[in-house]
Design a protein that fits this description.
1 helix, 48% strand, four-stranded antiparallel β-sheet, six-stranded mixed β-sheet
Length: 273
Amino acid sequence: MEHYETDTRDLAGLAWSPDDRVLCVWESLAEDYKVVLYSVDGRCLGSYLGYQMALGIKSVTWSPTSQFLAVGSYDQKVRLLNSITWKTITGYDHPSSVTDLDLVVYREVEKKKAQLNPNDVLAGNTSPYFLQTKYEVLEDRPVSIASNPLDPNKPNPKHGIGTLSFSSDSCFLASINDNMPTTIWIWDVKNLVMSDILIQAHPVKSIAWDPTQTRLAICCSTNYVYFWSPSGCLCVEIPSEGLFNANSVKWHSSGESLLLMSKDSMCVCYLSS
């Protein structure tokens, strides 16, 4: 249909907007921090140049309504672009210390309990204890966010915004800073503010938004699946025979069930109303 050169030196990735009207392309991390937007016929609709002489873009995602483009960077920031001027509406930082008293911070707390059922050992769980987990709301400030130090000698550093995901109604954005692997940041896109922070006991492996309502499912390679919504957080033990550590989660299009996957098995969980 069309063949054209892009205004990039080393094109690293591309993504169609959900309405199929705009093609977003961006530079590799070793080049400029640059995003360029094209129409279907190759016309340049706009571009955004963040900064130069630094590591650049790590992740890009569109909102389901195609109104916003979220760009995650190695500088641990998310920049939100609008689809009218292709300029930044706001930027979201991921600080190592949170002082805002109005911000809700949830922390997962694990507690060991003695095994009540001896059949659990036969099912593969040889530990005399099992873990119970729940969320607590942290009211004291400041709240410190655990962060892994950057090793400049290793390639593909676990640093910067590697995960970005909009809710189905585009009202919320979830992000994960790779050097803070146990923390999920929830942003209120309508009001352009940070909404909630979830601090997990283990590194986050997978997140997925319910396609029918504002509800986020989370897996951390444990036998629990975690849920966040504007009304609160919930930890749900995965019903299975033996130990099932979920590493990945996907929603059914109806929002009534979840597909959970571990290293070598899977299960489907149906949610009651």
